[in-house]
Amino acid sequence: MEINFIGGSYETFSKNINPQECVNFFPVTDKTGGKSLSLRGTPGLKEWLDLSNVSEVRNVIEYSRWSYWVCGNKVYQVDTDGTSVTCSGTLNTSEDFAWMALNNAGEIMIVDGSAGYIVSGTTLTQITDTDFPSRPTSVAFQDGYFIITLEESGRIYINSLNDGTSWDSTDYGNAEARPDDSLALISDRDELIVLGGETKQSFKNTGATFPFTKISGSTQSIGINASASLRQFTNTFFWLSDKLQFVQAEGYGAKPISPPPIDYQIAQMDTTNDCVSFGYIQEGNAFLVNQFKTENQTWVYDVSTGFWHRRTSYPDNGRWRANCYIYFAGKHLVGDHSNGKIYELDYETFTDDGEEIKRKRSAPPIFSEGKEIFHHSLEIFFEPGVGTSNQYLYPLKFDAKSGDFRIGTKVYGNISGAYGTVVKVTRYETFGILWLKDVSGTFQNNEIIYEASYGAELVINGDMELDSNWVNYGTPTTNERSSEQENAGTYSRKFVGNGIADGISSDAIAVTANSFYIYDGYLYISALTASSVLTYIARTDTYGVDSPIATTTTTGSFQQCTGIFQADTAEVKFVSVQSGAGAVTAYLDDASLKKITNAALVNGTIGSAIDDPSYNPQAMLRYSNNNGKVWSNEIWRSVGKIGEYDVRGVWNRLGSGKDRIYELTVSAPVKWVVTGANLEATQGTS
Fold first, then answer.
1. Residue 274 neighbours by CB distance under 10 Å
2. The domain boundary residue, chosen from 217, 247, 280
3. Neighbouring C-beta atoms of residue 633, cutoff 10 Å
4. Which of 155, 369, 522, 659 is in the most buried spot, having the most CB atoms within 10 Å?
5. Are residues 25 and 70 in the same domain?
6. Is the peptide bond before 315 cis (omega within 30 degrees of 0)?
7. For 545, phi and psi rounded to 5 degrees?
8. Is 350 among the domain residues?
9. Among 262, 280, 298, which residue terminates a domain?
């Protein structure tokens, strides 16, 4: 018989009543003739941008082609290609939610509980008008005005029209239908809604001296518990009320969207007023995400289906790492709650930035009039055959002081030529470990491991099409642009040397300390009596101070010369191509030097292989006959390697019980879909 296995997270004050949990799964409904109800794994977090600021990403807003992110006490302007600029100026605070609003003049106002700020372009400025109220707690924009609430006040203040820097201390109104403080506000459908500790009021711009006038009959006896839970979403708005219920606006009133089991979970929390909410729509599901910072919990309401579920993340299966959201550059982007990273929400990414996602479903109890039930067989219907082709993972130890490797990218060893794809990064105080799949070759000690991602070109006129930027190194008899040989384009750079260290060098290049750089160039040798032709990234014009980055003796064709070096200090260098002991006639073309954006020094060879959990993904089942007080041993089953579409998740000989709960847990980084469950059982007589 098919059992009621699919559902949300509704554990209440007694598991005897409702033990249901749904963690990192969410119920999906289908009204088009398919499975009516199933579970889908929540999206993974794929790194899109690291702001290099190990702090809370506090909020985000879009303006023109940019998104503006508050991270710690900084604001970052981010373009659609992921290029970021740190705005000048700082906030007074470094954590907790920062309110943001945009006006018609392109000004972004930020309120952080201590002050107000204006962002214009890439400049962040604190509002210094002496009439600007102290301790602003929220901000909204409507009809040309920024409107703010204040700490311990029922007033709302406005700025001068379309000028966020100009304020008049007499431009305020009162939201004091009852004596509670105004805690948060929002602009919705040409109305300004102000929420206090106990009330909700609506205002309309009537053009009066203070333009916003309270709408008669709009005052309702429902307040807000957590000001940052106020979220405009799906053509309405939601918040955590003073009754500790999540509610949705309905006319001038509100209706609860959290059922009693969710209200019970919230009531057990010691701190609820730091809840931060955001909403997003992805592939047809509209999620209201509610982050309880102090309690380290995330509760999610699916507006499209009415189901609730929980989300957790590493390191301790606490709250989900997503802290704020924006749809930008065609991507669903979220900011991390503590490390300054911006992620893309991606259903094809099965980890949270490389860390496993533990998914769990505890189903409703199975009982029948208090009689013993003998459980012969349970089959849970998964989408089978979702394993990956990679059977093993390999650990590669590296110097943790450098290298910020991204999940899913390929890394290379500059000496060995070995490569592999990063699936996880683990960092310790003095070293790190890259977990690699699809490894080819053997990495060596003391070589540089790097991603194929580089900064801007540092060599000027490296293609040699201009007759400039290359000067004598030593005393060559010839240093000229030439069309006699070329690797690409029309020209190369010809030099003739008769002694040791005769050659050419580029313009000066500034490098940064502890950074890695990759050189690439093409050299044609037409005559050679010297020992070799050497390429240096030199600190001085003295031969031999630096070791050569590439060496060649091949004549008669262009040879690619490449190499990687690490700059020990911030200094000025240049590319130098020169003879060894003896004479040389050579041509240099397409010389390039770029900073490697992700690189580190390998200080240990690659370790022994371990099984990749995605190769043969496993599902774990356990059960309880006393409503979760005591559990059975874990029983594991495969859901199918790649292409094994006939594998079934079946557990046999499961004993008996009068009140049985089944709990499913999975964590392999693969696609997880559960479409139901079937139980073969017989009922006893007592």
1. 16
2. 280
3. 6
4. 522
5. no
6. yes
7. -65, -40
8. no
9. 280
